[in-house]
Amino acid sequence: MQIAPAPTPWAFPAHATWDPDDDLVALGADLEPGTLVTAYGLGLFPMPVTLDGEEQVGWFSPVERGMLPLDGLRVSRSLRRSMRDFEIRVDSAFDDVVAECGSPERPDGWITGDFRSAYGRLHRLGWAHSVEAWRDGRLVGGLYGVSIGGLFAGESMFHRERDASKVALVALVDLLRDEHADERVLDVQWQTPHLATLGVVSRPRGEYLEQLGRSLRLPLPPAFRMDG
Questions:
Q1: Which of 31, 62, 93 is the last residue of a domain?
Q2: Model-level pTM?
Q3: Is residue 75 part of a domain?
């Protein structure tokens, strides 16, 4: 159902060697599909890092990992009302969602052209997906991430209208709720005050890695299977 990428030539550090006090685990490698799939399966995700004036790929595994339990999502009454105003689509405008998430208008943006291209390649192989909020035929919010077995690793979200990104998140949780929901992992990298209001919790790295290992053995959610 997912097209297997070419194996990565890179070897990531073993879990036992990771600094227990540092979110940054490794530097270097590339953003090829095989490298990304391997990294996410190990509990890592990439972000650009600038050292001594040179930009490199940094591979992160937060010491305290942000996770959203599927039964812990908090949907306010006003958000529930807002949900009626949007149409939800999956994978109908993946590249546009990533471009919006990487818009130069956003403060502290980190999604460079290389990252946009990398996740586009991953999407075309069936490993990266977008959940989108539309209104009146316009893309007004959404999120994207990587889906491997029972893991959905959320990368970024955006909104052009109030509540649009939250509506996409609620839709994602609904898509992940099936007979395996108790074992699925919805990873959001770091807990922020905003995400905490939606039910995101912080879990120690070791606990996250244990849950990740179990989740990878699960089937993909139906919404993210290329055969429908």
A1: 62
A2: 0.95
A3: yes
